[in-house]
Amino acid sequence: xxxxxxxxxxxxxxxxxxxxxxxxxxxxxxxxxxxxxxxxxxxxxxxxxxxxxxxxxxxxxxxxxxxxxxxxxxxxxxxxxxxxxxxxxxxxxxxxxxxxxxxxxxxxxxxxxxxxxxxxxxxxxxxxxxxxxxxxxxxxxxxxxxxxxxxxxxxxxxxxxxxxxxxxxxxxxxxxxxxxxxxxxxxxxxxxxxxxxxxxxxxxxxxxxxxxxxxxxxxxxxxxxxxxxxxxxxxxxxxxxxxxxxxxxxxxxxxxxxxxxxxxxxxxxxxxxxxxxxxxxxxxxxxxxxxxxxxxxxxxxxxx
Length: 304
Fold this sequence. Notes:
Blueprint: H1 2-16, H2 18-52, E1 58-62, H3 79-89, E2 98-104, H4 106-116, E3 134-139, H5 145-152, E4 158-163, H6 165-207, H7 209-217, H8 222-263, H9 272-301
Antiparallel strand pairs: 1-3, 1-4, 2-3
Helix pairs in contact: 1-8, 2-6, 2-8, 2-9, 6-8, 6-9, 8-9
């Protein structure tokens, strides 16, 4: 009987404030879509980092002829200096950090250059002597680049030590900032949704003040009286969260899986499984916000 009464009260409240309920659903849907998009963007950044950082290398460029660097004062790197660098790479200090070192001669660098810029007229003017020999070092943990750089930088025969991660850091910075902006916009929308839920619950409580007064007189508890109002907000917000999850799932399916994945097959992309991981979180956020907003509102408008 009590459950039937609560369900009937919820239905009455949703019908009486239908326009406000629809507004709550729409605002919650939009705000949680932004939240979900920010979450998917962070997952995408994580996938790119795991994939690209695992492939990047540390490049140790050796002194070419005519370099102005102090450590290159003796001219082009000598075989003895190259052997000394090999010894450092095999030392107990660096060997545990290195997965695989590779030495690229000037001739090999020239062949790679010509293949990469094949057909470019200006590239024909470059000769082998314009190239630099280098060590290409793949690290076990790309985050520990500083250890290798500190040991090799400034060594005789070494002109510079560069980490290829710098190529991607600017991209990740843009993606992270876009994610922060999305979260900020989503937070504003969630505040709007919370305020709208508060107004909806207030109107519903005022429209049924006579019924709640009678329930007080017959000894109904606070929880029993307030529960229909709380569930109204939670249901409206929950529907918005489900719509947001469904919208993200469709967006990822048609825009990422069916279209973008066919155009860009060299990077790992987010998928529908990632949306399924985020969707329960969106639903939890919606329900918690609705319940908190309902409790705060009802404490004022449901006093004895």
